[in-house]
Amino acid sequence: MIGSVAVNAAMTGISEDASAKPALFGPQAMGPKSAALPVIWKEFDTFTARADELAQVTARLAGTVETPDDLRPVMQQVGGTCRNCHADYRE
Asked: What's the whole-model pTM score?
């Protein structure tokens, strides 16, 4: 399935992006286009742990989508991990 190649590649890309995410929030810098809440810097260890969790989840899921039926559970796991962080750290 051609779509599975794209989904699996996306999982790898998300994992790589998640690993790099905490470095983007170095010194407390709030850009006018940022949707980040200031609490990120107060809870930076938790924020970093959640980014690491997303990196691990997506790395583990990369390569597991072979059919359209595989997509829903993968997206539920990824979405839950994303939501966990966004609920606390994004406007």
From this structure: 0.86
